[in-house]
Each structure stands twice: as structure tokens, then as C-alpha cells.
Amino acid sequence: MSQPSPPAPHDGQLDAVAEKLRLIRITSQQRRYPGRATPRLPSRPAVIRLMSNVVGALYPRHYGPAGLDAQLADTFVAQTLRSVRQRLSDQLELEWLLQPDDEQLACRRRARAAADAFLAGLPQIRDLHDTDINAAFQGDPSARSLDEIVLCFPGIAAILRHRIAHSLYGLGAPMLARIMAEHSHSQSGIDIHPGAKIGPACFIDHGTGVVIGETAVIGRNVRIYQQVTLGAKRFESDGEGGLVKGRPRHPLVGDDVVIYAGATILGRIEIGKGAIIGGGVWLTDSVPPGAVVTQAKPSLNGTTT
């Protein structure tokens, strides 16, 4: 027998709940921003829209409005860049105003300069990502065309959004970059920290469950399959027990490396050029160039298969 629904709270009860939440909120804000007014935060929806707009400007035929011919595509890209410039500057300013010593006018000037620098770097991002698309076409026999790869492959979508977020990360906007990265993660199932450095012609095939940590460095022409982790082996702590931030702690992956599904590679170790890491391998030591690392062969009733 089902339980009866609890009575709906009346307005007085809701007012009391709202007041309790207000007091908790004030206490939290005073702890985070002692001695100053609570600053505004960057808008997550606005930042996600910016990322979508930038993707559309980079690939207008694929991610822009339907029916764009060459002339309309040029107009769309120009208009999009102008719109992105101001809105990105606004969000950058909000991120930097979170720092207690930053002055608003200085933040505004810095934000405008950073927005211009970001937009100036978009041709390089496009060129770099085209190498990723070509790598996917060369590496996946199921790929029928480059257009199919751009429109359909989650690994390619994730790398493009990573390259956008990584540019902002390099300009000193880790919060905006992280918003973009985590939204991409939610869409693709591929978790790439915006601080990770990824070289040209990277192909993440299938991709679900891939994790690439903040200080990972990936070389040229690297192929990564699903469920691969490039993670930290341990976290250093300071004298008071807090975690030390920003130390290099993730793998260095050389050029032409292939990492098969389910491999876990931990710590600041080096995977040499041309190495192959087999599926399901757990690796915490460096690997020389050209090495092939696999699990022990499985056995059936005590007999190796």
C-alpha cells in the first residue's frame, strides 16, 4: 500500500527554508571572500554558448546554420567572431575579478587583450584540428569521409573542444576552460583536462571513458582507444596536509604511440616514440621507444591460450 504524499509546505514554511538557505549562503560567501563584496561568477551557460559559437566559426559547414554557401559562411564567421569577442571578454573579466587583488579596469583591459589573442589563435586551432581529422580517417577503416568524421566521431569532437579550452587555459582562464572541458566531457564521455598538451594528428577512437590529466603531454600522431587513463600515480601534500597543486604528475607520451583499450598509465613516466601499449595494461614505469607492452597471456584450465 502506497504511503500518502506529505502535505505541501505553506508559504510560511517556504519562507523559513529560503531564510535558512540565505544564511548558509552568506556564511559560505564570507568564508570564500573575506572582507569584500561577493563577486559575480562567470556564467556556465554563456561559456558553453561561446564554445559552441567558436566551433561553428571553425567549421561553419558542419556546425553553423543549415544551408550556408561559401559567401554566407564567410559572413556568418565574421559576425560570429565579432559577437564572441565581446562576450568572451565579459566572461574573462568575471573570472579574473574573482581574485581579491585584481582591479576592475585592469581586468577589463586584460580581458579584451586576451579575447583578441584567443581569436587570433583560431586559424592555428583549425589547422591543428584538421590533422586530427586526417589521422582519424587514416586510422579508422569504418570512416567513409572527412565530413563524416567531423559530424559523427565523438573523439574528434572532444579533441576540438579541448584545443579551444586549452587555448583559454594558456591565456590564464582556467575556470572558463574547465567549464568548456567538463561540458565536452558530459557530451562525449571523454575527460580531457584543459591543461593537457596534445600534439598534432591525435586520434581518440571510440573514446568512452578516456581520462587525460592536467599535466599529461601527448606527442604527434598518437592513437588512443576507449577506457584509457593517463593519470597521476600519487598526489604530493604540503606540510599541512593539503595537496600541492600544479606539479607535473601525468605521463609523457611520445610520437607515434598507440594505446589500446583499457590501459592505465600512471605517474610522470615516459612512453617512448612508437611504443604500443596493449589493452588492459597497468603501467607505472617508463617504456623505451618501439616497445610493445602487453598483459600476460590468459590461460584456460592451466594452459596458456
TrEMBL record:
Keyword terms: Acyltransferase, Amino-acid biosynthesis, Transferase
EC number assigned by the record: 2.3.1.30
Entry-linked SUPFAM superfamilies: Trimeric LpxA-like enzymes (SSF51161)
InterPro entries in the cross-refs: Hexapep, LbH_SAT, Ser_AcTrfase_N_sf, Trimer_LpxA-like_sf
Catalytic activity: L-serine + acetyl-CoA = O-acetyl-L-serine + CoA
Family stated for the protein in its record: Belongs to the transferase hexapeptide repeat family.
Official protein name in the record: serine O-acetyltransferase
